[in-house]
Design goal:
202 residues; mainly alpha; Endonuclease Iii, domain 2; Endonuclease III, domain 1; 2 domains; 13 helices
Length: 202
């Protein structure tokens, strides 16, 4: 089920009139909660520092290594040889990170069934100990897996560029400037961020 972000759009048009034209041009945000947290986290690890197209290609090769071309159980991730994951296009660091994520699930340090019930900071506390998951990956997970409405990914280059364009800044904003500029967007900074990415599309 798509999420109805109408209240967010009403708020953002009023709080930041410049966003009205961007909202008009790009329509309703395509952010909705998803079902498999471990798969989403693994995908976030694969996607780090890659274009969307490259990440999709490598992800397709990784899942093709498993029966039925489906994302496997944690035990199967731990059992597969590192060399096969490397051959699919994963770096050594990303291979180690995906295996560490699987181990955290097996050890019940990451509990998929609990994640949706946790607050944003509790989600971060559960996930940050996993190798290869930093603040950026947590922000992407909160936004695109849990569809949390008020996330501002200050470490994302696309958001920084979008805000530079949107606010007519001479240079890329640092985190503290981004937080100040985005204050009127609260409690819907996730949705405003989605439009910052859209500003960079040709």
């Amino acid at each position: 089920m798509p999420t109805d972000w109408t209240p967010a759009l009403i708020h953002l048009r009023s709080a930041d009139p410049r966003l009205a034209a961007v909202i008009e041009r790009h329509g309703h945000p395509t952010i909705a909660p998803r079902k498999d947290p471990v798969q989403s986290l693994a995908r976030a690890i694969v996607s780090q520092q890659l274009s969307g197209k490259a990440a999709d290609t490598i992800w397709g090769r990784v899942v093709a290594l498993f029966p039925g071309g489906k994302f496997p159980k944690p035990e199967a991730i731990l059992a597969i040889e590192d060399a096969k994951l490397r051959a699919a296009g994963l770096s050594g660091a990303k291979t180690a990170a995906i295996k560490d994520l699987a181990q955290h699930v097996i050890d019940k340090k990451v509990v998929p069934a609990k994640i949706a019930k946790l607050g944003d900071e509790e989600v971060a506390a559960m996930l940050l100990p996993v190798r290869g998951i930093g603040p950026w990956s947590v922000d992407m997970f909160l936004m695109f897996f849990l569809a949390r409405p008020d996330v501002l990914p200050v470490g994302d280059l696309g958001i920084r560029k979008g805000m530079q364009l949107h606010f007519g800044l001479r240079k890329l904003p640092e985190a503290d400037r981004m937080i100040k500029l985005a204050a009127p967007w609260r409690p819907y900074r996730t949705i405003a961020s989605w439009y910052m990415w859209r500003l960079l599309e040709p």
